[in-house]
Design goal:
Order of helices and strands: EEHEEHH
Number of strands: 4
CATH topology: Rossmann fold
CATH class: Alpha Beta
Largest sheet: 4 strands, antiparallel
Distance between the termini: 22 Å
Number of helices: 3
Structural class: alpha+beta
CATH architecture: 3-Layer(aba) Sandwich
Number of domains: 1
Shape: globular
Length: 97
């Protein structure tokens, strides 16, 4: 269903993810756990199109989504909901989503 294969993501010259791979099959529930600075948010941003991997592939339902615009990925059913930051205070939870 979702397959991330050997992605590398950079913030400028700083490599944030090096060779990260994972596969999530239909019906699975997966958690991503790690220390601050381990790359959890960077990985999720790359999957949801907010960051573009320099190398590697991200496939969802058999189609490449690596490097696609976030709005195109949302239309396919993947979105990134930040942890309480960058929300619009004057909007409902549903409107923010």
């Amino acid at each position: 269903m979702l397959k991330v294969d050997e992605i590398n993501v950079y913030y400028g010259n700083i490599q944030a993810l090096k060779g990260v791979s994972l596969e999530i099959n239909q019906g699975e529930i997966v958690t991503l756990i790690g220390a601050n600075g381990a790359g959890k948010s960077t990985l999720l941003k790359a999957i949801s199109g907010l960051l573009k991997p320099k190398q590697g592939s991200i496939n969802y339902l058999g189609q490449s989504i690596a490097g696609k615009a976030a709005q195109a990925i949302v239309k396919q059913g993947i979105s990134h909901v930040p942890e309480g930051r960058r929300v619009f205070a004057n909007m409902t939870v549903e409107e923010n989503l």
